[in-house]
From TrEMBL:
GO terms for biological process: DNA damage response; peptidyl-glutamate ADP-deribosylation; purine nucleoside metabolic process. The lineage of its organism: Eukaryota, Metazoa, Ecdysozoa, Arthropoda, Hexapoda. It comes from the Eukaryota. One of its GO terms (cellular component) is nucleoplasm. This is Macro domain-containing protein.
Length: 231
């Protein structure tokens, strides 16, 4: 079967039909991922003590905050519309998140990626999700080192591709903070401010943006910044 036929087959399946093909039975649905408001209300006392002890009267009532999630887990287990792959410029797979996504999706993801003529830094391109719980994969290439404008383009262009394809739920890994060497906190600041600005102008077109974190240090950074940016 060609990758085109395989892609169409998976995209036409119901969720129950597709679950038979997942690489894992340990999936996470959107309903199992709390919004930032839900997470913050549950952990407010701890976060206040760690982050802003003088601002314990803060609340989480912003509608934008209800479209944001911070979640620790395996991005390939998320059963949502699309996950973002922190890819290399060839789009043919690699290490880290990139390799995990390709392994979980199966070989036809690489075959489809081979038809896309690569991807420049900051660009975003879409493929099917194949055997992933996510319907689609949006591939973006992050910058090497601290280049805020290029990293901003990764998040903005990924969201734009999502919007253009009717994708309403999307998850991002921490783009460029691994072997590409972008410092974690500045990268998180770019990610959160870019997503917030995008949602402010496209509020009705995206339902949820999930920041999928792996390291505890990323979790600590996002907890602090989310409170300051979205509360």
């Amino acid at each position: 079967m060609s990758f085109k036929d395989d892609k169409e087959k998976f995209l036409k399946m119901t969720t129950d039909e597709k679950r038979k093909y997942y690489h894992t039975s340990n999936i996470t649905t959107l309903n199992e991922v709390p919004t930032w408001c839900e997470y913050w209300q549950k952990n407010k006392e701890r976060i206040d003590k760690q982050v802003n002890p003088k601002e314990s009267d803060k609340t989480c009532s912003d509608d934008l905050a209800k479209k944001i999630s911070m979640w620790q887990g395996d991005i390939t287990s998320l059963e949502i519309d699309a996950i973002v792959n922190a890819a290399n410029s060839s789009l043919l797979g690699g290490g880290g998140v990139d390799g995990a996504i390709h392994r979980a999706a199966g070989p036809n993801l690489k075959k489809e990626c081979a038809t896309l003529n690569g991807c420049r830094v900051g660009e975003a391109k879409i493929t099917g999700g194949y055997k992933l719980p996510a319907k689609y994969v949006i591939h973006t290439v992050g910058p090497r080192g601290e280049k805020p404008e290029k990293l901003k383009q990764c998040y903005f262009n990924s969201l734009n591709v999502a919007k253009e394809n009717g994708i309403r739920t999307i998850a991002f890994p921490c783009i460029s903070t691994g072997v590409y060497g972008y410092p974690q906190r500045p990268a998180a600041e770019v990610a959160l401010t870019t997503v917030k600005n995008y949602l402010q102008t496209h509020f009705d077109e995206i339902d949820r943006v999930i920041f999928c974190l792996f390291l505890k240090s990323d979790k600590d950074i996002y907890e602090e910044l989310l409170q300051n940016i979205f509360n």
